[in-house]
Write a structure and sequence with these properties.
This protein is an all-alpha fold. Helix content is 55%, strand content 0%.
């Protein structure tokens, strides 16, 4: 005897068909844009910028959110046109909150617990190569 779905509940086949239809409708750019917006929103919470989220402050997550947005934003900017300015502005605000939180901005508050931020890594080697090139992780044509 096979188990039947309760009345009004979709079958496994119906769920699979709905999932397939949704995948056909969604574009990768839509997912990238939603990810950028989600990172900005979550980064703002972790920076303590959202009312009531002051206890969620986590500068490591803010940094990850900033880096994620910086990596993904160029992929969606052309599609957004003038609307991309709003996302760039939100990113700037998040970067500023991070800088203030780490104390790296003049007049910024020191990080919680009196910790001093780690020294930044050197930007390259003596030959003028950047950090990725000097590590051997970046392939550059002609070099």
């Amino acid at each position: 005897m096979t188990a039947q779905n309760p009345p009004g509940q979709p079958t496994e086949e119906e769920l699979q068909a709905a999932y397939e239809a949704e995948l056909k409708r969604i574009h990768v750019d839509d997912v990238l844009l939603q990810t950028v917006v989600s990172l900005l929103n979550l980064g703002g919470r972790r920076a303590g910028l959202s009312p009531g989220a002051e206890d969620e402050r986590d500068l490591g997550q803010v940094r990850s959110a900033v880096e994620g947005v910086r990596a993904l934003l160029p992929l969606v900017e052309a599609r957004l046109g003038p609307d991309a300015a709003q996302l760039r502005q939100a990113l700037s605000q998040l970067q500023l909150a991070y800088a203030r939180g780490t104390g790296s901005e003049p007049g910024g508050e020191p990080p919680e617990g009196g910790e001093t931020p780690a020294e930044p890594e050197p930007a390259g080697d003596q030959e003028g190569r950047g950090p990725a090139q000097s590590s051997g992780r970046l392939w550059v044509p002609g070099q």
